[in-house]
Design goal:
327 residues, Rossmann fold, 2 domains, 12 helices, 14 strands
Length: 327
């Protein structure tokens, strides 16, 4: 009995052919509803990017042989854990987007710190006249010698730290495990998070969205931070409380929030949030482009396929997630 592997879209053709050497590959995009219903009880593995809308809870309940779900994304909060049987192993694609997302975090940080967006908008206005040079200079954040806080120290956080050290910054990281890296101050628990927030001149959020991280940065946490800090989010929007960050930005115009991720509305990221963030000069946003900048290379997809091949070859897959953090 051959292993049956169901694939969602966005997997390169050459990778599909590689998988076909080890399993019977079925493409979700080529299957009608009747064919899909017939094959679901026979599926052993599922490889998807975003979770397909066609695989609702009723259809997932029919996947009685399913043993592995591999996502092409680094985050897994889109996986319907509650619908999956307990035996199903779920793997993220952690590490697949590290360089590109880490670079984008720095693009946002530099745009904020060097006031690129602010000055560009000012210069486009008719009759622009610059302020005195020293006044302009005081508005710029010089990074050397400043403190960079990284909340979440996985592969993306490490990339952010690597660049931060190159700028001559003092780097602090908050995560669950001790990094034990030269030049990095590693902090744990609630006291560690509070120290990072209080002492940092720039904070980058690089955590997965789980039950414990949802709303982690709220009114209390924002109040701990410096008045002129830059907060960058390249993880998931829901880690930051939407109402709290908006009120904080309005009340503290020297505090800058720069994000590539947006709060979910009706199951999708909303780039037109109910609160008027885009009217604020101390808000910078990009439309979740950091991940796609990696995906166009197909490197993340190849990484996900490689992990499926490990599983099919009898090896322990990498990046197995703790389902209790999400379900």
């Amino acid at each position: 009995m051959s292993v049956k592997l169901l694939l969602g879209p966005s997997i390169p053709g050459e990778e599909i052919e590689l998988l076909r050497k080890h399993a019977e590959v079925l493409l979700l995009s080529e299957m009608g509803d009747g064919d899909l219903d017939a094959v679901l009880p026979k599926i052993d593995c599922l490889l998807v990017h975003f979770w397909p809308e066609r695989l609702d809870a009723a259809k997932v309940s029919k996947m009685t042989r399913l043993s592995l779900v591999q996502t092409g994304l680094a985050g897994v909060n889109h996986i319907p854990f509650g619908a999956l049987r307990k035996k199903v192993v779920v793997c993220s694609n952690a590490g697949g987007f590290s360089d590109e997302v880490g670079e984008h975090a720095w693009g946002l940080l530099l745009s904020a710190g060097k006031r690129v967006v602010k000055f560009d908008a000012a210069m486009r206005r008719k009759g622009f006249k610059p302020a005195p040079a020293l006044e302009l200079g005081r508005d710029i954040l010089v990074l050397k010698g400043r403190t960079l806080g990284i909340v979440g120290y996985g592969s993306i956080g490490r990339k952010v730290a690597e660049i931060g050290k190159a700028f001559g910054m003092k780097v602090m990281e908050f995560s669950r495990s001790n990094a034990e890296e030269p030049g990095i101050i590693s902090l744990r628990g609630r006291p560690g998070l509070e120290r990072v927030l209080r002492e940092s001149d720039a904070v980058v959020i690089a955590l997965p969205l789980t039950k414990s991280t949802r709303g982690m940065i709220g009114e209390k946490e924002l109040s701990m931070m410096k008045r002129e800090v830059i907060l960058v989010n390249i993880a998931r929007a829901e880690i930051v409380d939407e109402g709290a960050i908006y009120c904080h930005l309005v009340a503290n115009m020297k505090f800058i929030y720069a994000t590539d991720v947006w709060w979910m509305k009706d199951g999708k990221e909303s780039y037109a949030p109910e609160l008027p963030f885009l009217e604020l000069e101390n808000f910078i946003g990009t439309p979740h482009v950091s991940g796609p900048s990696a995906a166009v290379t197909s490197a993340p997809q190849r990484r996900a396929v490689k992990n499926v091949l490990r599983f099919l070859g009898g090896e322990e897959p990498l990046n197995v997630v703790n389902r209790s953090e999400y379900a």
